[in-house]
Write a structure and sequence with these properties.
Chain B: InterPro entries: L24e/L24_sf, Ribosomal_eL24, Ribosomal_eL24-rel_N, Ribosomal_eL24_CS, TRASH_dom. The structure holds two protein chains of two kinds. By secondary structure, chain A is of the alpha/beta class. Among the domains of chain A are: 146 residues, Up-down Bundle (Four Helix Bundle (Hemerythrin (Met), subunit A)), CATH 1.20.120.1190; 128 residues, 3-Layer(aba) Sandwich (Rossmann fold). Chain A is built from 21 helices and seven strands. Chain A has a five-stranded mixed beta sheet with strand order 2-3-1-4-5, sandwiched between helices. In chain A, a hairpin with a 2-residue loop joins β2 and β3. In chain A, α1 runs antiparallel to α2 and α2 packs antiparallel against α4. Chain B folds into two domains: 59 residues, Ribosomal protein L24 (Ribosomal Protein L24e, Chain: T), CATH 2.30.170.20; 100 residues. Chain B is mostly helical. A two-stranded antiparallel ribbon of chain B has the order 1-2. A two-stranded antiparallel ribbon of chain B has the order 3-4. Chain B is elongated. Classes of the chains: A alpha/beta, B mainly alpha. At the A-B interface, β6, β7, α14 and α15 of A face α3 of B.
């Protein structure tokens, strides 16, 4: 049914958008390439296609708009009336009429220009015709700007209308503004209508649904109605009237007994009478609302009479199953008594107290802020005065927190004194037992001497290690016997070890002069050498290590005379010359520094050799 | 104001010093300096890092179980302020501190005593093995022999004289 498809109306674009969309579609969906050397029928066909395509687009879209929007004659009178109230029937019809006209005009334009194009004889002519056609169509659309805007607004509002099904079971709430209709619907259904203390909070119809006897019931909330003749009613009130007039429902006329809505009971009654004709053929119920504020028994005589009248009327008008059902729903259900045990309602103490404080204005406690205001500049925030201690005069004490790197809070214990006593007793016992006496190790003389010696030994050892590390082991090593040993050093060393070095005995025993070579005597320069003569003083007494002393040095062995020596030296030097020139370390040095130096192997050879470039 | 304990080295974290790290499981770690913090981030175990207190206690280098150490502990029930209790507590703290110090040093001293014994034996060994570096084995023996001989002669002479 069209009734429910108000949300499915297509978006109505603005005129500018409309034109843009259509033209760009034409551009994209039709072939774009044409040359003037093509055959004329091809050119004509090309441009005709464009014109027809544009016309087709416009036509389709406008038709869609026309079909989407509901025709006021075809829909339920309730909606028709509602739309009339909201959007003005005439304006609506006019807008749609304009759209229709535009559609027809566009069709005509296209027909004309296609006919003309049959006689176009060049590319240029056809192109101009196409331009003119499209231009005219777009102008027509530009003129529809107002209608399109209006229709778009109508569409938006229409899609937001509540979906009220006029044919199902409905309850309609009506009455003055602010009587409690929206609150009622909020309570009864899952609707969330805004409830505010000012009048005309509800500005349009609202729907809620509730279940009763396995059936779905619609509850419609209306904006409040004021008491004045029909012609003077505004749009909002008219909505309510429309609903009342067209919806076949049970009407709940809500009255406010406490007159909190701002209208007396009498006024409400008058309104009731005024709109009575609208209630024809509808089950009616008068709802007395806000009875927690003013009970029915507190009404005055007059009001009571009105009530009675109302009640009588209501009784006479009640008919139909629906109302009975609704009535049952609206009565307070009293459970049947099981036994005679009284079961009064339970109100907790706090609620009672709360209620009491609400009723009586109790003197409030003086706050800090009040104090501050009183004292002005003298006021000092002192939170410690509220503390609840055993000794009230200790409240303003400065509490120590840290002592020597320890937190006092870690030591606080009500039993600390007892623990301390125990600890001290323990300590005393320990002291008595002699735990704390430091044992002075009185070592005997022997031990001390041993320590002394050990120390010396260690030192001597370290020295020896250091000395041996300092020795140069990388160069050629000469045997010990080659070096000369000074008498003094030997004496000192042996003396340090405790041996006696004085006396000839020592000398004879360690005949170092014979033992070790006397190199000091032999100088580098070649002195007068006797043939196979040994030094007189070097008379070996023992054969042990004396032969090394007797051998002549290599550069003098086998050499007869100075002339030969000279020659030998010359030979030596001449051999060395070569090696020296090549920077070699010795005979065995075969290291090649650079087999292929780059500067000799790269670049062009300008003039001459490869030794240098 | 509280002096907290550093998680890594167990040293004091004074207010305004160090860093606090809160992990996703709501465990709080306080560090006294970036050294501890960096070690923690490297996932090092304080019980294996030699310079921390945790290591020293875990490897028995320091006093762990003692009555004097039970005084300082985090209590969960707060006590309302009372002047005399606080005063007494401060006094008690001082005494407890003294006792604690004595006991801790005693503990360490006892531990180090063994070293002294070892030192002694080592010295004796050293002397026995390497005495030749200082004193030649037969140093002074010659003299001794001489003296002995002289003595003997003297005795003989005496004896002869007596006869």
């Amino acid at each position: 049914m069209a009734l429910y498809n108000f949300k499915k109306i297509m978006v109505v674009p603005t005129s500018k958008e409309f034109i843009d969309i259509t033209l760009s579609k034409t551009q994209r969906k039709t072939p774009t390439v044409i040359h003037k050397h093509y055959q004329i029928h091809r050119i004509r066909h090309f441009y005709m296609r464009k014109v027809k395509f544009t016309q087709q687009n416009y036509h389709d879209r406008l038709s869609q708009i026309l079909t989407d929007f509901p025709k006021l004659d075809d829909i339920h009178p309730f909606y028709a009336d509602l739309m009339n109230v909201l959007y003005d029937k005439d304006h609506y019809k006019l807008a749609l009429g304009q759209i229709n006209i535009a559609k027809n005009l566009i069709d005509n334009v296209s027909k004309d220009y296609v006919r003309l194009m049959k006689y176009g004889d060049s590319l240029y002519r056809c192109k101009q015709l196409k331009r003119a056609a499209l231009g005219r169509m777009c102008t027509i659309m530009k003129r529809q700007k107002q209608s399109l805007e209006y229709l778009e607004q109508v569409r938006q509002h229409l899609s937001r209308l509540p979906t009220i099904d006029p044919n199902t079971r409905t309850l309609l709430l009506c009455g003055y503004p602010n009587v409690g209709k929206s609150s009622f619907i909020n309570k009864v259904t899952r609707a969330d209508v805004e409830v505010q203390p000012y009048a005309f909070t509800t500005k349009s119809l609202f729907v809620g649904h509730m279940d009763y006897k396995y059936l779905r019931w619609q509850v419609v909330d209306t904006p409040g109605i004021l008491d004045h003749p029909l012609e003077e009613r505004n749009t909002i009130e008219m909505q309510a009237i429309t609903a009342l007039a067209h919806l076949r429902s049970a009407v709940l006329y809500v009255m406010d007994l406490s007159e909190q809505c701002g209208h007396t009971l009498k006024q409400q009654l008058e309104l009731f009478n005024n709109i009575r004709p609208l209630f024809a053929n509808k089950p009616l119920l008068v709802v007395a609302n806000k009875c927690d504020i003013k009970k029915i028994s507190e009404l005055t005589e007059e009001d009571k009479a009105c009530d009675k009248l109302l009640a009588a009327r209501v009784d006479s008008k009640m008919k139909g199953k629906k109302v009975h059902d609704v009535l049952n729903r609206l009565h307070l259900a009293m459970p049947a008594k099981r036994d005679d045990k009284p079961r009064p309602p339970f109100i907790p103490e706090g609620a009672k107290v709360g209620r009491k404080t609400m009723e009586v204005d109790a003197p409030k406690r003086k706050t800090e802020r009040d104090l501050e205001m009183e004292m002005g500049d003298d006021y000092v925030l002192d939170l410690q005065k509220y503390w609840d201690l055993m000794n009230q005069d200790e409240k303003h004490d400065v509490i120590p927190e840290i002592w020597e790197g320890h937190n006092i809070a870690d030591y606080i214990d009500p039993e600390i004194m007892k623990n301390l006593e125990d600890l001290e007793k323990e300590e005393e016992l320990k002291v008595k037992a002699g735990e704390y006496e430091s044992e002075e190790e009185s070592e005997d003389e022997e031990m001390q001497e041993i320590r002394q010696l050990a120390k010396q030994i260690r030192e001597k050892r370290k020295m020896k290690i250091v000395c041996s590390k300092e020795k140069d082991v990388h160069g050629p090593r000469m045997p010990r016997t080659v070096k000369k040993v000074e008498r003094k050093t030997l004496e000192k060393e042996m003396g340090g070890l405790g041996l006696d070095m004085t006396g000839k005995d020592a000398v004879s025993r360690f005949s170092f002069s014979s033992h070790y070579a006397v190199n000091a005597r032999r100088s580098r320069s070649v002195t007068v050498l006797k043939k196979r003569k040994r030094e007189a003083s070097v008379a070996p007494t023992s054969r042990t290590r004396s032969q090394s002393a007797s051998r002549p040095p290599r550069d003098q062995s086998g050499v007869r005379d100075p002339k030969m020596a000279k020659k030998a030296k010359k030979l030596m030097k001449s051999q060395q010359k070569d090696m020296n020139r090549q920077g070699k370390k010795g005979e065995a040095d075969r290291h090649v520094f650079d087999l292929k130096p780059k500067h000799l192997f790269s670049g062009k050879r300008k003039s001459g050799t490869n030794d240098h470039r | 104001m509280r002096i907290e304990k550093c998680y890594f080295c167990s040293g004091p974290v004074y207010p305004g010093h160090g860093m606090m790290f809160v992990r996703n499981d709501c465990k709080v770690f306080r560090f006294c300096k970036s050294k501890c913090h960096k070690n923690f981030k490297k996932k090092r175990n304080p019980r294996k890092t030699r310079w921390t207190k945790a290591f020293r206690k875990a490897s028995g280098k320091e006093l762990t179980v003692d009555n004097s150490l039970e005084f300082e502990k985090r209590r969960n029930t707060p006590v309302k302020y009372r002047r005399e209790l606080w005063g007494k507590t401060v006094e008690a703290m001082k005494k407890v501190e003294e006792i604690k110090r004595k006991r801790q040093s005693r503990f360490i001293m006892n531990r180090l005593k063994k070293g002294k014994q070892l030192e002694k034996t080592e010295a004796i060994n050293e002397v026995k093995k390497n005495i030749h570096l200082i004193k030649a084995p037969h140093a002074g023996k010659a003299k001794q022999m001489e003296d002995k001989m002289v003595q003997k002669l003297a005795e003989d002479v005496e004896m002869d004289g007596a006869d």
